Amino acid sequence: MAIVGATGAVGTRMIKMVEESKLHVKSVKMLASKRSAGTKVKYNGEELTVEETTPDSFDGIDLALFSVGGSVSKKFAPEAVKRGAVVIDNTSAFRMDPDVPLVVPEVNSEALKEHHGIIANPNCSTIQMVMALEPIREKYGLSRVIVTTLQAVSGAGNRATQELLDESRASLDGKEYKPEVLPVKGDKKHYQQAFNVLPQIDVFEEDGYTHEEWKMIHETKKIMCGGDMNSDDIQVTATCSRVPVPVAHSESVYFDVLDKNATVEGIRDAIRNFDGDILQDDPDNQIYPQPINAEGKKDTFVGRIRPDQENKGSFHLWNVSDNLLKGAAWNSVEIAEYLDEMDLLRV
Ligand code: A2P
Questions:
Q1: Ligand 1 mean position to 30 CA, how many Å?
Q2: Most Cβ neighbours (<10 Å): which of 127, 138, 238, 278?
Q3: Any idea where the domains of the chain sit in the sequence?
């Protein structure tokens, strides 16, 4: 197999997830850009040399996990498939392509059967939200979702995390710091993230929504409504913000269920019994999900479940998950495990 982007924030976690996985891996090729060719990364205690990614890097590869920029995926993923590899891509490059399944294995693994070589890993904030909502949808039906995210800086890559740390130190020392990465590396302006909240993730698009917000809307529908990114079976709207947290996103989710007899205890039970979710919901003992406790874990943590006092069938929940693991590296490796189990690890 190959890991493309093996030196990045997600790529380094992918290596760890592959080490811990059930996959029968013969060898792993570590790929990145020319910049880091020749550097070493560790895999199962062994030092492996990072190579520059070229089309020929994929000769003899059965499975390629990509975590690079969208333009790099667009260039190399089809080359990998041409050479017989199944690609699991972590960027938004192919997510809305009707021929590309967008998969969270616990929610829609059946969609894997339709793959033609490329499988897309959803956006991190979408993954943890559908993980929290799917058991509720299965039990009570779901008609509307309103989400506000509080996202960690590592979602914007290693440079963004470094910027938050340097900026925090500079701010405490009363020194000047000129941000160059956040909120969006390629955008016109950069703002201080340390001790601040930025209501912008990714660039602005139509109707005043950011690309991240549109991703949450369309990806949630594609995953939960049988592949239809424009379905109106579930209404979804989102506000995405970045908070000064290194790892693990939090989300405040307000939702309407179809079954108006749904109860908080029933929702708790559904979440408790869903693979990959952990219920942390005990207000009397101040138990609720928090980013610092979720970092390094593969699960989605759910709590603060409570009813809207004025609208029957409407509820709030709070969910937290490691954006680099279930939100990215672990979900990708888990897709690979499902493909293997379903005998679909071939083009
Ligand atoms: P490199 O370390 O050589 O720049 P992050 O999300 O943390 O910014 O990481 C991005 C990952 O994508 C890194 O591993 C980076 O490698 C890799 N990458 C960036 N550009 C390319 C490219 N043109 N070809 C292959 N890998 C790339």
A1: 11
A2: 127
A3: 2-121+328-341, 126-322
